[in-house]
Amino acid sequence: MFAVSSVPRTTSCRLSSAFLCHLWIPSSRRLHQQPHLPSLSFQIRSLRKQIHMAAQGDAYEEALAALSSLITKRSRADKSNKGDRFELIFDYLKLLDLEEDILKMKVIHVAGTKGKGSTCAFTESIIRSYGFRTGLFTSPHLIDVRERFRLDGVDISEEKFLGYFWWCYNRLKERANEETPMPTYFRFLALLAFKIFAAEKVDAAILEVGLGGKFDATNAVQKPVVCGISSLGYDHMEILGDTLGKIAGEKAGIFKLGVPAFTVPQPDEAMCVLEEKASKLDVNLEVVQPLTARLLSGQKLGLDGEHQYLNAGLAVSLASTWLQQIGKLEVPNPSQMSILPEQFIKGLASVSLQGRAQVVPDQFIESRTSGDLIFYLDGAHSPESMEACAKWFSFAVKGDNQSESSKYLVNGSAGSSHDKWSGETCQQILLFNCMSVRDPNLLLPHLRNTCANSGIHFKKALFVPNMSVYHKVGTAADLPENDPHADLSWQFTLQKVWESLVLSEREGEEDGESSRNSDVFTSLPMAIKWLRDSVQESSSATRFQVLVTGSLHLVGDVLRLIRK
């Protein structure tokens, strides 16, 4: 499978005297008097296990450091590095002996602006419910890089990750030169996914495009089984183009000669380009509609939000095509179904994906003592997805019925009841950040106005820098608590946009009144502390409902801080 000898041996295991004291060796007299105490052989096995775990922890950190070395600090729109040449991906596949494997791989390839990760998750869950072995590659990760690689619906184990990681990294490092440098961060992760899925012999590989489509590392796949394009909108315009037509052209770059493809209803400008690209490659491009409640036979989707019915509809068509062509199953055409097959419903209902319409209570707050602190997490970062997020949040916080609210917490995290609360006892707070390449003048009005139209008004908006940094892959253990020297200029820009929206609604108020509606914090932990302090100071009948959005990185950072 992979060479264990390729894992670096630089990690040393040192045992402290305190640790050695745990190795208790009983005398024969004590052993006779206290037979329930652990045997020497058991203690030795336990000691070896702890040594192994300590060594593996160090090895994992070493792998993350090596992975971080592949991250360039250049803008993603900067193409000055030789390692950005798309054709290099095929050289890397050759160096890793993956050329034949990738040709045999039964791939479902999905691009899009929003919803592509959810579509991939739905698709994988459906195919797995039929008993097939699945591999799912998505991005970004929220807490641990292993989230990007799922085998049969579960994140790859540390042990397997380390083995495959060092096999690929060392092989590429040994053969890298000026003309074929080490691959950049995302390209390496895509190559690692190909290696993992090939070695694990998955039946279906579901690949989410990282950025764009045409020049994305996942587009090394030359003969997928089926392709999908989720909803298109304005995002990454500095790379993909400043019109929907240009963006659609980049996304359609995953189309392959004669390979069927599906998409959802798109704006006319985008749809025309998709149809034109499909026609040139003899691609049968079908437009699918959102799923209806009738098709689900009363079941609810595993991912919340009205927009997920659109993603689920696309997933049903992608999974049906794969099951018919590769699984050789007689699956009816989705357009001819009155009710979805049982396995489809099971897959759609049981899917999970962190950071998408997810509700998680703060596990460090004692519920029903000094109020509640509930986080509503969604990584929306485009104008269209921000509007969808706002609709979901507005519906979720209203707590229309007990069963709907309880389901939210089951999807997010267990451990707290979710009784119906009236609007008088709830305060909605926004916790926001986004990348500086995005336009807050598009994002924040969509969010605020959509919520306001549903009767939801934010008591306060908090703007924070992300904890995780883009040039380092790490774990929760090495996240900084606070940086007094952090550059907060972007956060103050976001605050200014927000305050202008507040002022436009509150004309005639005295100067300084609006300043109490938002705050900039030097770090996320400081903002979380403020929220927790506010809960402790509030009455026991007050619930704080915090919407975290604008960045999946921010969502991941919050999850690290509120989960035990």
UniProtKB/TrEMBL annotation:
<keyword id="KW-0436">Ligase</keyword>
<keyword id="KW-0479">Metal-binding</keyword>
<keyword id="KW-0547">Nucleotide-binding</keyword>
<comment type="pathway">
    <text>Cofactor biosynthesis; tetrahydrofolylpolyglutamate biosynthesis.</text>
</comment>
<dbReference type="GO" id="GO:0005524">
    <property type="term" value="F:ATP binding"/>
</dbReference>
<keyword id="KW-0067">ATP-binding</keyword>
<comment type="function">
    <text>Catalyzes conversion of folates to polyglutamate derivatives allowing concentration of folate compounds in the cell and the intracellular retention of these cofactors, which are important substrates for most of the folate-dependent enzymes that are involved in one-carbon transfer reactions involved in purine, pyrimidine and amino acid synthesis.</text>
</comment>
<dbReference type="InterPro" id="IPR001645">
    <property type="entry name" value="Folylpolyglutamate_synth"/>
</dbReference>
<feature type="binding site">
    <location>
        <position position="139"/>
    </location>
    <ligand>
        <name>Mg(2+)</name>
    </ligand>
</feature>
<keyword id="KW-0460">Magnesium</keyword>
<protein>
    <recommendedName>
        <fullName>Folylpolyglutamate synthase</fullName>
        <ecNumber>6.3.2.17</ecNumber>
    </recommendedName>
</protein>
<dbReference type="InterPro" id="IPR036565">
    <property type="entry name" value="Mur-like_cat_sf"/>
</dbReference>
<feature type="binding site">
    <location>
        <position position="378"/>
    </location>
    <ligand>
        <name>ATP</name>
    </ligand>
</feature>
<feature type="binding site">
    <location>
        <position position="236"/>
    </location>
    <ligand>
        <name>Mg(2+)</name>
    </ligand>
</feature>
<dbReference type="InterPro" id="IPR018109">
    <property type="entry name" value="Folylpolyglutamate_synth_CS"/>
</dbReference>
<dbReference type="GO" id="GO:0004326">
    <property type="term" value="F:tetrahydrofolylpolyglutamate synthase activity"/>
</dbReference>
<keyword id="KW-0554">One-carbon metabolism</keyword>
<comment type="similarity">
    <text>Belongs to the folylpolyglutamate synthase family.</text>
</comment>
<feature type="binding site">
    <location>
        <position position="356"/>
    </location>
    <ligand>
        <name>ATP</name>
    </ligand>
</feature>
<dbReference type="GO" id="GO:0006730">
    <property type="term" value="P:one-carbon metabolic process"/>
</dbReference>
<feature type="binding site">
    <location>
        <position position="208"/>
    </location>
    <ligand>
        <name>Mg(2+)</name>
    </ligand>
</feature>
<dbReference type="InterPro" id="IPR023600">
    <property type="entry name" value="Folylpolyglutamate_synth_euk"/>
</dbReference>
<dbReference type="InterPro" id="IPR036615">
    <property type="entry name" value="Mur_ligase_C_dom_sf"/>
</dbReference>
<dbReference type="GO" id="GO:0046872">
    <property type="term" value="F:metal ion binding"/>
</dbReference>
